[in-house]
Amino acid sequence: MEDFIKFNNLFSLYSSLLTETQREIFEDYYGENLSLQEIADNRGTSKSFVGKTIKECEQKLIDYESKIHKLEIKEIADKCLNEGNIEAIKKQVEKISKLL
């Protein structure tokens, strides 16, 4: 479940960096909860191609996040919005600065 949420969050930030085919397969798998076989049947391709494409998407999303840190920055910013203590907010902003 944790991976499901993580990959959906990453996809919402970086989907435009994937190919159209990658986006469609990823959405079918993570968004529509279709099995590899169902996706393969719908697309007229092999189950192994679908599985490979999903793994490639997952790796690309992880790679993009490791370089750009958009999700991490968003999570820190969300924390700041919920903080009432100015010192805690300063610490969170320092974390963001180090990522940029």
Task: State the main characteristics.
100 residues; mainly alpha; Arc Repressor Mutant, subunit A; 2 domains; 6 helices; 0% strand; elongated
Model description:
- The mean pLDDT is 91.
- With 100 residues, the protein is mainly α.
- 82% of the residues lie in helices and 0% in strands.
- The protein has 2 domains: 68 residues, Arc Repressor Mutant, subunit A; 32 residues.
- α2 crosses α4.
In short:
With 100 residues, the protein is an all-alpha fold. It has six helices and no strands.
Secondary structure layout plus pairing:
Elements (H helix, E strand, L loop, with lengths): L1 H13 L5 H12 L4 H8 L3 H22 L1 H13 L3 H14 L1
Helix pairs in contact: 1-4, 2-4, 3-4, 5-6
**What's the total number of strands?**
0
The N- to C-terminal Cα distance equals 29 Å
Shape: elongated
The secondary-structure element order is HHHHHH
